[in-house]
Amino acid sequence: MRNIISSITLAVFITLGSFSLPVTTMAAEPASAAAPASEGVEEKADQLIATAKDLIGQATYSTSEYKKTAPYQFSCATFLNFIFAKHDVHLGTYNEDYMMQQGMEVSKQELQKGDLLFFDGNDNGKPDHVGMYIGNQQMIHMADAQHDIMISDINGKSYYTDHYMSARRVLPALMDESPVSTADQVVNNAYDSLDTETAENVKFIKEIYSKEQISVNASSVNSLMNSGSSVSKQELQKGDLVFFGASSTSNTPSIAAIYGGEHRMIVPTSNGVKSRVLFVPWYEDRYLGATRLLSKDKKVQSISTKKDKRIAQTAADLVGAGSYGYDYAPSSLTFTPAGFTHYVYAENGIELSSTMAANQATEGNVISKDNLQAGDLLYFSLDGEGKDIRHAAIYVGDNQMVHMTKEGIVKESITTPWAQANFATARRHL
Questions:
Q1: What are the residue boundaries of the NlpC/P60 domain, all occurrences included (predicted)?
Q2: Which top CATH class is 304-428?
């Protein structure tokens, strides 16, 4: 019921510290007519209903505690959150307001089993009660402290008829694809981690993707955001990564989450891995963007066609900045030449194993000088022999390279006498 919302909202702020992200409300068009439920949807709905009925007499009403083990304690919203999650359908929230923004709106005349029904007992335009339709004009719900879980006729009391607000269909929208895709598996892996101890943000993302044999090369949230292909909020798909700043005015990503589809996401926090929805104002205010590591066919996306340009642009943007030094100091842009290449690649989600040119030059694919592409790495000697590698640069196209010199970061031709005499090899990591 309504009084659970204040406690849940508080929990969000305790868990996420200074974050507050609102998300644009993308209301679905009401369904004009109900299509017959598919076999998979009907089977899933029957499973949900069976589990809900099994809990009759086993749980008590509570708006202050969400207890997932016997003796169970639920509010109306946590009750539904629990039974849906039991069958791998994650509502992502136990806030009635946010639940009512998921799935597709359906008319009362076109209800199907598994639909969510919302009521506004306070007549203030906001839902304070939710139940699940089970067919035959009935719903199952955690009613109140007197009745606990019960089955009610949705037309049997004036409360249900006078305060009825809306119905939302979340099946099959919140279900896995058939057959289950790699994106589904990534999201399911993330949901399987709910309430576990939180790993460091980037480490958590890497571990979830690695379970599907997907390698994520990033050492920071910022470099993670520069991985893959950027996507708009309107184009989000399961398995995408979404990013948020530490405040509503920050442009630097501080937290990453795995997008679960239908505005849901799985977020590693200091209090464990949590399920959230983008509708929460805290997240909407701090939303910075999203990136996609999976292609439409759910395989690991080939990102070279976009990332090569990003790397070249990152390098070009630094021309005239920085200073030569033997310390690796990103905050002051102080680098050796190979430290510079390491930094630019890390900013774009690729971790080179070393800040020494000779070591870097042994990695990646060897590329001939005639086949250079933007983002390739160039390695040079300093003695005019082209053998003892001591220098590194980034090729940015049009026979130009950007590199760290004693005068700072400069852009110059790869056809200068020095470059031609000292060129040793070129490597591609994309």
A1: 42-171, 305-430
A2: alpha beta
